[in-house]
Amino acid sequence: MSTKEDKVKDVSEDGVEESAETTSVQTGKTDPGNGAEGPIILFFLVGLLISLIIGWVIFPKLLYSHKKQPFDFNHALHMGEVDNGCESCHFFREDGSFSGAPGLAQCIYCHDDLQGVSPDEVVFVENYVATNREVPWLIYSKQPDCVFFSHAAHIKGAHMDCTVCHGYIGESDHLKVYEENRITGYSRDIWGKNIAGLKKNSWDRMKMDDCAECHMEATGRTSSVQTKKDGCFVCHK
Amino acid sequence: MKEDPNHIKARKFGMIIDLDKCTGCGACMVACMSENNVPFKEDESNKLDSITWMRVYKVTNGKPYPDMEICYIPRPCMHCEGSHGHSPCVSVCPATATDYDQATGIVSQIYTRCFGCRYCMAACPYHARYFNWWDPVWPTGMEQYLSPNVSPRMRGVVEKCTFCFHRYQLAKDRAFYEGRKTIEEGDYQTACTQACPAGAITFGDLNNPHHKVNQLVEPDPKHNGRPKNPNAFRLLERLGTNPKVYYLTSREWVKRAGDNYLKNED
């Protein structure tokens, strides 16, 4: 306490902030915060800023690894060549299951030999068609193993458009970078690009709540006893 | 696109097991295990560790030879409805991992949601639920035989019979593709039903009067689905669990063995 009084004396001798300091000493001798408040708030703000940067910028960058597809694919170019839109290559099998990304068997209908001059097609024909190997595509929309998704129910049953969930990928010239969550191994397209969890388009995110939200809007089913929503086994297996 | 949920006729999938036909061969247990990716253990006789969604129990009438009789009782999950879908396990689950679907009458189990508290196992009066004490270990190369339609379970979660629900999902897929609104009785049958060499198991929609299950037991909706057929009974009927698995037998002692009767009780 003596040091503090000395300090007050110094200040009063200098004549700066005289009234404020002396009154505080006179009225409340036990107040310890004087002079330390500024640095504490500054440290807090700097710490907050660092945490925010780590949480919102650095961590998401570290969390997702960037993977390249085996070779680039031009959806727009192919859409111009086929008759039946998306279903020309992404078709239903006779048992109602969906084929997903086409296999070599579909591609070699046209690509048993080079069709154009694109270097990506050269990679495809030389590395995969010639050696009869399937292309190890990274699937952007691959859901976890516990999810059952029926393309037939959505496309054939509810007559939904592919773009509702997949966006305008059919009009793209290049495949985008595949971002894989290093912890879960899932594609970032499932979790969504926006780190704040905001969603502008229906295809921005494909988490369970997004499916449930649309199911509630479209079907209004409330058959689940626990959740008063659609039953769990509608989309789980 | 919007359908009126009140106009969908709710299904109620159920199973009838004819105990007079069951020989206790265990084909249903084997079919169930391979269909549903059920892990097997080095020592399957250790019943604290082994997992059997479908399990065949052996009961006797307790009389000495030559009056002794044996009955084998296959026991899947009963998919209890309780009253208004409050089955014993669903009522106690703190994680919403198990659920009753009024549209199908099936008690679901979501493995990724279960955190392994095992309240449901304590609540289930039929011992139909099993806990994974270990991660499943498949012999080398056997992962290739796993069904992609059933999600394998990890250590620390509870699993049980799902009435082969994935087969219903696939049957609906085919129906959508073929432009049908409904699925036929034969489109959705469980693995144990198809595997039974004696034809003792019947599966179908209890709400549908055209389905064999409805005709065999005639469930009475006014009395929580109690069977009108005098030869039909349900396990532990008096608990009020309202199960959807019915048993048929012509033997009175078997019917009595299905519930906790006292020795001198009528």
What does this structure look like?
- The complex is a heterodimer of chains A (237) and B (266).
- A two-stranded antiparallel sheet of chain A has the order 1-2.
- The termini of chain A are far apart.
- In chain A, 43% of the residues lie in helices and 3% in strands.
- Chain A is flat, with a radius of gyration of 31 Å.
- Residues 1-5 and 7-25 of chain A have low confidence and may be disordered.
- Chain A is mostly helical.
- The longest helix of chain A has 27 residues, at 37-63.
- Chain A is built from ten helices and two strands, in the order αααβαααααβαα.
- A four-stranded mixed β-sheet of chain B has the order 8-1-12-11.
- Chain B starts with 12 loop residues before the first strand and ends in a 9-residue tail after the last helix.
- Chain B has one domain: Alpha-Beta Plaits, CATH 3.30.70.
- Classes of the chains: A mainly alpha (237), B alpha+beta (266).
- The interface between A and B is large, with 32 and 42 residues.
Distance between the termini of chain B: 55 Å
In whole angstroms, how far apart are the ends of chain A? 71 Å
Largest sheet of chain B: 4 strands, mixed
Structural category of chain B is alpha+beta
The count of helical stretches of chain A stands at 10
